[in-house]
Amino acid sequence: MTKILVIGIAGRMGKTIAGCIEDTEGVGLGGGTERAGSPDLGKDIGEVAGIGTKGVAVSDDLATALAVCDVVIDFTTPESSMQTLQICAEQGKAVVVGTTGFSPEQRAEIEQIGKKIPCVVAPNMSIGVNVLFKLVADAARVLGDAYDVEIVEAHHKFKKDAPSGTAVRISEIVADSLGRNLEEVGVYGRKGIAVRTPKEIGIHTLRAGDIIGEHRVLFGGMGENFEVFHRAQSRETFARGSIRAAQWILGQPNGVYDMQDVLGLR
User: Fold this and answer.
1) What integer best gives the mean pLDDT of the chain?
2) Strand order in the sheet with 94-97
3) Which of 25, 97, 187, 240 is least crowded, fewest Cβ atoms below 10 Å from its Cβ?
4) 0.90 surpassed by pTM
5) Which CATH code fits 127-232?
6) In the chain, pLDDT over 90 holds for what percent of residues?
7) Where are the domains of the chain?
8) Three-state SS at 201
9) Count of alpha carbons within 13 angstroms of residue 217, beta-carbon side
């Protein structure tokens, strides 16, 4: 059985992942960590996650907790995830990261870490969203420059990074498919009086309430619109995708992969 260690196990996403591990065949919850000073340190990982006693304590020492685990899942912050990746590289353990908001410098460091261990790093672990990525790439290539592209994402009011990592990835996919430089054509929201330029890609952010995650891609043509829309109704979709990635990554060669690799959508 594959033993999975969950970073931030006492958080909303950590608890969701632990719960999904519990009812997924072939995997088990092998460990969980929390930040130094957390009131959950020393408590049973299963009790913290609400899935019953597991006989393993929540720890703030990842290197030690890794000893009895096969793979790590991390949905935390860029800074915390970088520490996870570095320690996993030192310990030779595979890792799955669903954190968003990495800087270009952090992305470059992740590529170097990928030379030491196999890791899945993806802005969205949802299987449906990754199918959306594929559809958007195909649509952009077929529709071409005759259709304007607008991307709208919505998340809960507690999400810090904007636009979402998923929206950023969609904009990158569209730009690549259309042969455009996103740095030159990306427009993040609009204000004032200006005519839309032919090749710009609009990226817009909404933050409200407890929205789990919504992404809409609009291709606007003269006489018709084509839209692709995805709504996450539960964090379980991301948790189950990350578990699927954790099962897939074991045995893979060193490198940085994403969910397109996991799902065979390349």
Assistant:
1) 96
2) 27-33, 2-7, 71-74, 94-97, 118-121, 255-257
3) 25
4) no
5) 3.30.360.10
6) 97
7) 2-121+235-262, 127-232
8) strand
9) 24
CB-based contacts of 184, cutoff 8 Å, min separation 6: none
What's the token pair of residue 8? 């931030």
- Assess whether pLDDT exceeds 90 at residue 128: yes
Q: Would you please indicate which residues are annotated as catalytic (active-site) residues?
A: 155, 159
pLDDT for res 266: 77
Rounded CA gap, 117 and 13, in Å?
Answer: 24
Among candidate residues 260, 244, 214, the one with its CA nearest the CA of residue 27: 244
- The token pair at 31 is 């460990």
For residues 266 and 258, what is the distance between their CA atoms, to the nearest angstrom?
10
Strand order in the sheet with 225-232: 186-188, 201-207, 148-155, 213-220, 225-232
Alpha-carbon separation of residue 35 from 7, 8, 49, 169, 226 (angstroms): 9, 7, 15, 29, 45
- Residue in the structure block whose two tokens are 């991390």: 74
pLDDT in tens, 28-73: 999 999 999 999 999 999 999 999 999 999 999 999 999 999 999 9
Contact 87, 66 (CB under 8 A): yes
Q: Does the 2-121+235-262 domain belong in CATH 3.20.20.140?
A: no
The answer to whether the peptide bond before residue 253 is cis (omega within 30 degrees of 0) is: no
pLDDT greater than 90 at residue 265 = no
Q: How far apart are CA 158 and CA 214, in angstroms?
A: 15
